[in-house]
Amino acid sequence: MRVGIGVDAHALVEGVPLVLGGVEVESARGLAGHSDGDVIAHALIDALLGAANLGDIGSLFPSGDDQYRGASSLDLLWESYREVREAGWELVNADCVLVAEEPRIGDVRDEMCERLAGALGVESGQIAVRAT
Ligand code: MG
Fold first, then answer.
1. What does the pLDDT read at residue 63?
2. Contact partners, residue 75, CB within 8 Å, separation at least 6
3. Helices and strands, counts by H and E, the chain
4. Model-level pTM?
5. Fewest 10 Å CB contacts: which of 10, 16, 19, 92?
6. How far is the CA of 74 from the centre of ligand 1 (A)?
7. Ligand 1 centroid to 122 CA: how many Å?
8. CA of 124 to the centre of ligand 1 (A)
9. Dist CA 15 CA 41 (whole Å)
10. 30 vs 10: CA distance, rounded Å
11. Res. 34 pLDDT band, cuts 50 70 90
């Protein structure tokens, strides 16, 4: 068994949808990024890739590559986990912690788990999303 840790942070900017855990959350500001800026999905990708010794999100999806501009991070998550599975590993559980002053995510946490699990092809009970 291997354990991976992923951390991500993006700036909040006006006029961009806020996507967290694959869910568009009501907010005046969203996360800047080359893709949709979904920090939860990005941290999960890095945890999966790191545990499997397959590099990180930047090595798999270079920010200079226009192919990934505006990409859904759930698609990147699916692609990353495909690499992990091809290397012979599979996810047991993922525990995602959002560190942010806002928004409150209690109402959408279950949906986030379902979206992330759906992108991975695992049961939603294998994914936990919490906020500090
Ligand atoms: Mg990121």
1. 80
2. 119
3. 4, 6
4. 0.95
5. 92
6. 12
7. 22
8. 22
9. 21
10. 9
11. confident
Q: Rounded CA gap, 98 and 108, in Å?
A: 13
Residue 53 contacts residue 88 (beta carbons within 8 Å):
no
Question: Coil, strand or helix: which one is 15?
Answer: coil
pLDDT tens string 45-68: 999 999 999 999 999 998 878 887
82 CA distance to ligand 1 middle (Å): 19
Is the per-residue pLDDT at 13 higher than 90? yes
How far, in Å, from the CA of 30 to the mean position of ligand 1?
Answer: 13
Q: How far is the CA of 125 from the centre of ligand 1 (A)?
A: 24
Q: What is the dihedral of CA 85, 130, 39, 84, to 10 degrees?
A: -10
Give 34 Cα–ligand 1 centroid separation in angstroms: 8
Give per-residue pLDDT as tens, 111-128.
999 999 999 999 999 999
The amino acid that residue 128 corresponds to is A
pLDDT tens readout for residues 93-103: 999 999 998 88
CA neighbor of 35 nearest in space, from 5, 3, 78: 78
